[in-house]
From TrEMBL:
Record's keyword terms, sorted: ATP-binding, Nucleotide-binding
UniProt keyword annotation of Nucleotide-binding present: yes
Superkingdom of source: Bacteria
GO molecular function: ATP binding; DNA binding
Protein name: FtsK domain-containing protein
Keyword Repressor: no
Residues where ATP binds: L33, V34, K35, S36, M37, G38, K39, T40
Transmembrane parts of this sequence: none
Domain FtsK span(s) in chain numbering: 13-210
Source lineage: Bacteria, Bacillati, Actinomycetota, Actinomycetes, Micromonosporales
Amino acid sequence: MRRLDVDVAHSSDRALLLRLDNREREAHTALLLVKSMGKTFALREVLLIAALDPRAAIHAYDLKGTGDLSALGELAHRYRSGEDDEDIEYAIAALRELREELRRRAKVIRGLPRDVCPENKVTPELASKKSLGLHPIVIGVDECQVWFEHPVYGDEFEAICTDLVKRGPALGMVLCLATQRPDAKSLPTGISANASTRFCLKVMGQTENDMVLGTSKYKQGIRATMFAWADKGIGYFVGEGADARIVSTVYIDAPAADVIAQRARAARVAAGTLTGHALGEAPDSSATVTANLLEDIAAVVGPNEERVWSETVAVRLAELRPEVYGGWNAKSVAAALEPYGIDTSQVWGTDPTTGKGANRKGIRRVDVAERIAHRNRRREAS
Ligand SMILES: Nc1ncnc2c1ncn2[C@@H]1O[C@H](COP(=O)(O)OP(=O)(O)OP(=O)(O)O)[C@@H](O)[C@H]1O
């Protein structure tokens, strides 16, 4: 992307505003783009910039299904175009992998000595150490509302994306979401509120403006309503802790995108980092697609059990679906429920081996039931 004001920070296809190696705070962030004015071009540009770093694993989703991101498919770790059932199942399986990856990375970071990792986050040096597996992961989703409004998986997409937006940046994982309908249904507030980088092309009114750029931005004079219809690719860019700037994307049409993608692919071949989709591999959906954590918990916690220890839930889940929950413990349950806004707290229970009562971390059945009801209401509404 190109700044329009004097100190333009652009030109080579790498030295652009969004850098992926944490040298700038703008690096690991979510991005929101809006409305038939160059949104897909902008998202494609961001992904191409990321792709030119051969360490970066690219996940590209074009939910419109027109193949706008097909250039990225040549090098992407995960890629899908379309919104049919099999496309959605591919995506949910890939996102579950990312949820696991978030956990793995958090553990790796926690385990590193202070002098190697003083800030408890991925640095360019750490991202380059192949053995740690902390390379940048950049996920781009065009027309993301399709995921969040999905009648079956909408809730889970929301939970995982919220987790990615909140914890991803420190762990080297960037989620870039693009939508032309920035309302709370298309873009859940847990996600929009936590997005730290925003890009808003022309919009029609104050509500959409503030949905993308942040509360009160219109009142403060940051108004993407002022752009003309001819201002393709021009929008307000708001980075974390920085003043809003008017920037323009670089015009990269589909043939130009192919040329850049071929270069990015060649760099990956040379570096030995071509993986996943680019090698003809898909995420393993066999074990995970049928699993739905909330419903599985509801199935293993009886209606008369008001509160249950997390460790008990973990054991029962593993019995239900060993291929999905095998090896889970109380902490796994807490981490998996956190993105749904369900906390584990001290609950009274009885140890089945000793028969003694004690307070341990656990869940309240009502919290899980309420979350399922919330999702069902959404399914009915869609
Ligand atoms: N930086 C740019 N400079 C000049 N023209 C641009 C730029 N970016 C996009 N355009 C033009 O705007 C058109 C629409 O762009 P794009 O397909 O990205 O829109 P969109 O917002 O995704 O719309 P839709 O949702 O309808 O696909 C492109 O075909 C291109 O001609």
